Amino acid sequence: MPNIESAKKRVRSNAKKANVNTLIISSMRTAIKNFEKNVKASNKKEADNSFNIAIQKIDKAMSSGKIHKNKAARLKSRLTKMKNEMK
User: Fold this and answer.
1) 3-state secondary structure of 87
2) For labelling alongside 8, which of 16, 18, 25, 81 has CA 20 to 30 A away?
């Protein structure tokens, strides 16, 4: 445990940031899984809606630096391919 006040504050702020980072990543993964579930069930209307949500979550994670831009591009490409093959 840190003794210096600034180090104690750093521990607190790192914990808060870790919670936010986890929330952003987990919500992105959940949105992707929801889209994949709708595609598998052939729910076209729900798949379109969940596709837009998943893309937004991926973009938010990328813009805030939680995932790399190439990973975001790869994920969006895979989701778009799944959506197009559904038609």
Assistant:
1) coil
2) 25
